[in-house]
Amino acid sequence: MILTINGGSSSIKFSLYKINESLQKMLFGEIENIGTAKAKLNFTIIADQQKKSLPIDAKDHSHAANHLIDWLEKEQDFTSVKAIGHRIVHGMEHTEPELITDELLTELKKISAFDPEHLPEEIKLIEIFKKRYPKIKQIVCFDTAFHTSMPLVAKLLSIPRRYYEKGIRRYGFHGLSYTYLMEELKRLTDEETANSKIILAHLGSGASLAAVKNGKSLDTSMGFTPTSGLPMSTRTGDLDPGVAWYLMKEENMTAKEFNHLINQESGLLGISETSGDMRELMNVEDTDSRAAEAIDLFCYQTKKWIGSFTAVLEGLDVLVFSGGIGEHAPEVRSKICDGLEFLGIELDEINNMNNRTIISTEKSKVKVFVIQTNEELMIAKLVNGLLNSSVKSENFIK
Ligand SMILES: Nc1ncnc2c1ncn2[C@@H]1O[C@H](COP(=O)(O)OP(=O)(O)O)[C@@H](O)[C@H]1O
Ligand SMILES: CC(=O)OP(=O)(O)O
Ligand SMILES: [Mg+2]
Questions:
Q1: Sorting pLDDT into bands at 50, 70 and 90, what band is 389?
Q2: What's this model's pTM, rounded to 2 decimal places?
Q3: Cα 371 to the chain's mean position, in Å?
Q4: Which ipTM score applies to this complex?
Q5: Catalytic, out of 60, 77, 143, 286
Q6: From 11, 117, 278, mutation site for ligand 1 pocket: most ligand atoms within 8 A of C-beta
Q7: Ligand 2: which atom is nearest the Cα of residue 6?
Q8: Which atom of ligand 2 is nearest to the CA of 173?
Q9: pLDDT (tens digit, 9 = 90+) per residue, 240-269?
Q10: Where does Mg(2+) bind (predicted)?
């Protein structure tokens, strides 16, 4: 078995895969609302279609992880778990999945401030699993790895060069999702299409786009941290840097308060003043103009990035929508694509409304896809690949 762990800022998603010829998912779920009184463990056991939700006491990620392990031990014989695969959002220039060692953990701790929303909690999860299961291999899969191919011009931020040497540059994220989407695109189409000029739009709570040519990332909307690019559920996306100075000077805002403002209070939540959840906003947009404006901003900015990346790619052949919003919100896809006919994007509104896999018309120059992403399966595949290669490698730590 391979256990996958995807630790977010307020949730831990998990899946258990049986290693057969293919990877067979046995169970999956998530602990959500960590740190609140509404914390619960939702799970589905695939064999008997058992779907349940249990309220739990999870005041932080450590409590949540220990609850998860206790529950998994009851459900599953843990001796059959060969490896635990973690999604790690920030991995600097690491290009491959890696076995966790003390050195790697120390390195990740050093760059923790590069992604304060994800890394500290992800590290905590690795440590908890290590404490409870010191013998089980833990393997980390980096979201940043997909974008290491970006050219220097896309990685440079226009601040003094000395900061680049300190690691302050564009990295880009959602790489496990993008790798999965590229595999799916190849499976659904052909080699030629998968090597064409592609924009991948991962629109979830965190949202980003990537410009991909010949299977390689050329640019992406997220940067040094996952706070930049598109407006998100509660994150600002790109922001005039002068706003930081102004708030610090005029409102005596501290670094900690500013971090909270840009990551927790902004985006859809900040504009609507009610919710960072797209579905909730769509339910009230007819009666609440703030919700409608938040949705408009999200669609407007996504459209701008599509235009920008079409220029980067010098044309566009394929557009892929994914993530909770990209997969399930036809009105949002429609609003994003509205007016982009001049780029060759033409939606078939019936297929779009039905969330079909191909939502562009027959004659649309750009093929538009809706593909359900699967970061968990990608982690399991990468872990399985590393386990298999380790059988051949004597250097791999047993
Ligand atoms: N049917 C739907 N209509 C509109 N938005 C939806 C729908 N289903 C999910 N979403 C939105 O998707 C977002 C969550 O995306 P997801 O990829 O699941 O997030 P996460 O980054 O937490 O994995 C939320 O804003 C949610 O409202
Ligand atoms: C990279 C990132 O923003 O991840 P998530 O969408 O899971 O928060
Ligand atoms: Mg996500």
A1: confident
A2: 0.95
A3: 14
A4: 0.98
A5: 143
A6: 278
A7: 7
A8: 1
A9: 999 999 999 999 999 999 999 999 999 999
A10: 6, 375
Burial class from Cβ neighbours inside 10 Å (0-12, 13-18, 19+) for residue 365 reads middle
Mean pLDDT computed over 107-136: 92
Binding residues for ATP: 13, 202-206, 277-279, 324-328
pLDDT digits (tens, 9 = 90+) for 188-207: 999 999 999 999 999 999 99
Identity of the residue numbered 2: I
Give residue 396's pLDDT: 44
Ligand 2 mean position to 348 CA, how many Å?
30
Asked if 102 is an active-site residue, the reply is: no
Query: Is 395 a residue whose pLDDT tops 50?
Result: no
Least confident of 3-17, 70-84, 191-205, 382-396: 382-396
Report the atom number in ligand 2 closest to the C-alpha of 89: 1
Domains of the chain: 2-168 (3.30.420.40), 193-370 (3.30.420.40)
Stretch 366-391: mean pLDDT: 93
Which amino acid is present at 7?
G
* Structure confidence at residue 397 as a pLDDT band (50, 70, 90): very low
